[in-house]
Amino acid sequence: MLFSDIIGQADIKQQLIQSVQHNRLSHAMILLAPEGAGGLPLGLAFTQYLVCENKQEQDACGQCAACTKAAQFVHPDIHYSYPVIPRKAGDKPVSTDYISEWREFVTTNPYGNAYDWLQFIGAENKQGNITATECQDIIHKLNLKSFESGYKILVMWMPEYLGNEGNRLLKLIEEPPANTLFILVAENQEQILATILSRTHLIRINALAKQDLVKALEEKSKVPAAKAQQIATITAGNYREALYLLQHSDDDYHELLRNWLNHLFTGNRVALQEWIEGISSAKTGRENQKQFLRYFINLLEHTIRLQYIDRSLLAFSEEEMDFAAKLAKLANLEQMQQIADALNNASYYIERNANGKMLFHALSLKLQYIFKKKPLPVL
């Protein structure tokens, strides 16, 4: 992947290139980027630039043998690590078990998130991990001599999935073999081991600038200018989310949300219980639950916008616009903020393996209190 393939982020591209040109290259760094900002593409383009045999002023050449191999993710001195799942009970998987899937995924969906990747490899509702066995494999690979390049490089995507076993890598990070580089690509600093953070150079990457996202939607997805502006406004610099809005109507989420609120307002406890059983089932999965909550938050934001700007300037469907208009009559701004906070908290606890049935029971009760303007009970 070339820097020229990446949307925006001109300052970060220049910073990475100059770190090589001015010999200020850190042997261990974390590219910390919000979802959809291009953290992984930047990491991949940087590794290709590092091994390129004919570096240009602003990019790799894209033509030499090293570039060809790096672009196909087959360069022998570039290693990849990412969360994986056991294929069967008792397995101790490592990243190379999924290298064919990885190559296909990063080629077709480089702005995807961990949920997209885990679904791509058939995880369904299983939790991905970077395991102790993977750490041992990394240590083994990086202690070998390089084959072709002056560098041996590890690109670790989502170090947030490292548990305490990640401490096995500390000695290697502190005292790496000569010309060994660690490039970690992360989204959430709080979920990275503190011991890893303290030993790496942190490079913060901002969400995509609106004009860069608009340009990408117009040029890469052939989206009309007006719609590209709308989507860029809604997704706040998240290219992955922008593509999701383009490719999915979210009809299922819309129906799911409408049924939930109907059950809450009518007080139909039997129907609400059935709804909770469905949303919290293993078939739905934790990541899908988070996507549903995000959809609700998105709709709340639209509901607020609808009160101040013309509906023709918004990018949801007419059905969703009508739904948002009705929601505006049921909740004021303060209530919407309370609902959004409750949804964000629920998503946080889903990530931490909260019991889905209990969580959605509690969330349903909270929403009922909020809509009725009653103070939430203190337990």
TrEMBL record:
InterPro entries: DNA_Rep/Repair_Clamp_Loader, P-loop_NTPase. One of its GO terms (biological process) is DNA-templated DNA replication. PANTHER family: DNA POLYMERASE III SUBUNIT DELTA, REPLICATION FACTOR C / DNA POLYMERASE III GAMMA-TAU SUBUNIT. This is DNA polymerase-3 subunit delta. It comes from Chitinophaga eiseniae. The lineage of its organism: Bacteria, Pseudomonadati, Bacteroidota, Chitinophagia, Chitinophagales.
